[in-house]
Amino acid sequence: MQQHGKEAYPEECCGALLGKVESSGAKTSLQTVRIENNWPEGEQGTKHRRFAVTAEDYLLLEKKAKDEKLTLLGFYHTHPDHPAKPSQTDLSYAWPFFSYIILSIKKGNPDQIFSYELSSGEEKSFIEEKMDIS
Ligand SMILES: [Zn+2]
Q: Which CATH superfamily, name and number, covers 2-129?
């Protein structure tokens, strides 16, 4: 993730997390998969500010996960020179269950990292997930 974020800087980059869901509900990410930054140029912002995962990407990721007997756990993306806090766009594109990891890249170097998931409440909002990096 950090390497991807450094390479893509000053643009955003994104990828997917494949792994396992423990019986406790905790997710263990075992693999990251890079996703091309597909946000169409000139459409509501630029690659510096937005990223998009296409339906095609999503299908390929589900297939890859299935082939490797893993589960698609969520996605990561970077915020170049912005805090690792979800934007309104991040929230509007979020789906239940998935973890959304945001990595801030400060002047080309990885900075803060946080993970979020949708809360189970009626209003669509993010809650921070506890993350252990080992
Ligand atoms: Zn974002």
A: Cytidine Deaminase, domain 2 (3.40.140.10)
